């Protein structure tokens, strides 16, 4: 079950949290839930729903972009 928590890092600590769906940096409050045996962090209800309904279904639990994304992008760009 999803639950809201607060990042208890002190102002001098570099403990950054990022949303598992959109990648946005989360300063204070975040939503956490266990999905596919891993605790994941989200910036809000919308990103949690999007992760369950789209990211998990279409890309899988541990999706990473292909290593050659930069090269493919350069080739496909119109000059
Ligand atoms: Zn997000």
In short:
The protein has 79 residues and is an alpha+beta fold. The protein is built from two helices and five strands. The chain has one domain.
Shape: globular
| Number of distinct beta strands | 5
| N-to-C CA distance | 49 Å
Which regions are unreliable across 5 or more consecutive residues at pLDDT < 50? none
**Domains, number:** 1
Please trace the helix and strand order, writing H or E for each element: EEEEEHH
Describe what you observe in this structure:
This protein is of the alpha+beta class. Helices cover 29% and strands 25% of the residues. It has one domain. It has helices at residues 45-59, 69-76, and strands spanning 3-6, 17-18, 25-26, 29-35, 38-42. Strand 4 (29-35) and strand 5 (38-42) form a beta hairpin. The longest helix has 15 residues, at 45-59. Residues 19, 21-22, 24, 42-43, 47 line the site of zinc ion.
List the helices and strands and how they pair.
Layout (H helix, E strand, L loop, with lengths): L2 E4 L10 E2 L6 E2 L2 E7 L2 E5 L2 H15 L9 H8 L3
Antiparallel strand pairs: 1-4, 2-3, 4-5
Bound molecules: zinc ion (ZN).
Features:
79 residues, alpha+beta, 3-stranded antiparallel sheet, two-stranded antiparallel sheet, 2 helices, 29% helix, globular, binds zinc ion
């Amino acid at each position: 079950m999803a639950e809201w928590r607060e990042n208890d890092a002190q102002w001098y600590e570099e403990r950054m949290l990022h949303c598992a769906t959109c990648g946005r940096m989360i300063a204070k409050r975040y939503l956490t839930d266990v999905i596919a045996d891993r605790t994941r962090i989200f910036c809000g209800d919308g990103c949690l729903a999007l992760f369950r309904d789209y990211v998990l279904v279409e890309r899988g639990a541990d999706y990473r972009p292909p290593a050659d994304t930069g090269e493919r992008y350069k080739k496909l760009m119109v000059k």
